[in-house]
Amino acid sequence: MDVKRCLCASVLTRLPAVFLIALLxxxxxxxxxxxxxxxxxxxxxxxxxxxxISATGASIRIVFPHDARVCRIESRPVHxxxxxxxxxxxxxxxxxGLTVPRFEGAHDRLYxxxxxxxxxxxxxxxxxxxxxxxxxxxxMPWPKPIKGVSCPVDIPDLAELGARHTHINIKLSxxxxxxxxxxxxxxxxxxxxxxRLRLDPEAVASxxxxxxxLTDQGVNIVAVILNPCRGDxxxxxxxxxxxxxxxxxxxxxxxxxxxxxxAVARYAxxxxxxxxxxxxxxxxxxxxxxxxxxxxxxxxxxxxxMGPASEEQVAGHYINELRVAWLSVxxxxxxxxxxxxxxxxxxxxxxxxPERCVAGRALLDRLxxxxxxxxxxxxxxxxxxxxxxxxxPRFWMDDRTAFAYDTPLVTFRNIEVLAAYLRLPQNRYRDKxxxxxxxxxxxxxxxxPDGENLQAAAYALSYERIRQIPGIDAYILHxxxxxxxxxxxxxxxxxxxxxxxxxxxxxxxxxxxxxxxAAGTESWYENIRFALPILDLASWQDAVVMTGPLPDxxxxxxxxxxxxxxxxxLADQLDRAEVTNALDCHQRTWPxxxxxxxxxxxxxxxxxxxxxxxxRLRLKVPDEPRPELTFGLYLMAGNGxxxxxxxxxxxxLLFEKTVTDAQRSRHRVDLSSLRGRQIALTLEVDARETxxxxxxxxxxxxxxSHPEHSREDAG
Length: 715
Description:
This protein starts with 7 loop residues before the first helix and ends in an 11-residue tail after the last strand. It has about 725 residues and is α+β, with helices and mostly antiparallel strands. A hairpin with a 2-residue loop joins β8 (about 110-120) and β9. The chain is about 20% helix and about 25% strand. The longest helix has 19 residues, at about 310-330. It has an eight-stranded parallel beta sheet with strand order 10-19-18-17-16-15-14-11, with helices on one face. Strands 22, 24, 25, 27, 30 and 32 form a six-stranded antiparallel beta sheet that branches. The protein has a five-stranded antiparallel beta sheet with strand order 23-26-31-28-29, with no helix packed on it. It is globular, with a radius of gyration of 29 Å. α6 packs across α8 (about 310-330) and α8 (about 310-330) packs across α9.
């Protein structure tokens, strides 16, 4: 997000729907869907295996499947409708492939769509192979450490923090001179497909200074390519999508205009300029390691406006923005990634207006399908897993998240869902998962004495979880210093000085600064020990990350059972339990392997005593057939010698098991002999030689009847 703009709209997009509905109604969101290019209404279709379209500096080559016999080939610019396609070849399939000139007058076929009829089926594809196009092959290494911070205001401080990633915002139109400005020196005038681009030397020099300073510090830069909808009308309006709602007060950014030859040439030309300037092996101007196209495109009404638009129209236009950018940067280097930008809204859009916002998963699915149908290419994902409420840093309490692919939101609490989703075979590119970066997300500093500790604890838990998840290439915390223009949010590592100082002038370091600095170092656990009681964790081994296959659908979450059995959940009655000799006893949320959430009881034996920790509940066993106590056992084993778990009724032993390692197990205790009786049910954890690291859990302990019909949810 831009350093100098107000982010109130960002907060609003994540407020409860009732507030958003009122806001949208006040803004009058009822325009007709006019000006949206019909070409965005594209069919996903099916890409023909064996069909490859490659580009070099001078030619386009089409290689056909071996079983095809007759073909017809035509091409059209990416902005042109199908009826404008021009024939390139009709006849028997050339077994050696078909080669055509890359340039046709002012047009570069690199940015064309190729209509290909093979026998009785028709396909449409862009260029899919650019391996022979890139003019540079030197390594552009991506830092292995994931730690980063956005909006840096003090580069030496980044060195002290050990930050290895950041993002900077680039307004493409701001790199060009205004129409009224005189021509710059000749080296600043470029031609792209017959369109004359006059670069602004001062704007480029300012960007050079920022990029070079960060590169010299060893910071990897990801550039966010933005298109503000308000600015200099004689220059900026040329960049806006024709249907952009320029007069709406909540619109921050627009989709890029790709509706004319000149518009495509401007966009491609400046992406080409950036990639060429900031991928030089000599690093004369610094390096940019990747490009994010637009901002939070699923919330397109505010952040990528193209007028009222359907999910299909948004995806159809955005895939063109991604493809043109990918082709442009790959003209220079094969390792420069392009990223699509998504919010934390996954299956639940951030507004109720279907023409202003789409679900992130739905948009991602359409992009995958369109990319494959039109010739797949290497775009990746930049995600923003903010807590569900930007003003509340307690993401571990987000109740609109699940550990399943139909989760409403993807936040820090369940970020592994997105990483796993990208690993699914249907979402891969060339049989590899698309890359994932977390490019913007942060934690509010609440205005109370514990606010800074809570913010720091939230970062500690998020980093501890993210570092365990494979496939996340960067975690860029928003932001370096608080900013007075962010709608009341205070997300920085530093406080900001009050007026009259500029809005993001560093004041003092917050506690999160010290935690951030320790991330990825040997002093990490020493610096985050303070956070355990805040997070209600027994140890950092308790920061459970879900692994293994995830379900498509999450079962109903919370204490209400989804099966017909009568269930007494002991964790829900902890407030009336009698607890003795326990160093600690509390309730914990516990993720299930099927995507749901259970409750666990953490029980730690006390120190300096031979007596076991006990939790006793007085209750009545249901007077129904086959009552059973079901539960899971889990010992978060560290360097201890294990524990003994027991279940008793008064002093009668019903169950006993010694556990010495960190393995989960499920158990049942038959209560048929106690049916209909009042009992004093006791859960007991006994230390052996020592109570060190006796982090013992009873997972979803429940009394139920008719167990043969129940869901296996203990453990």
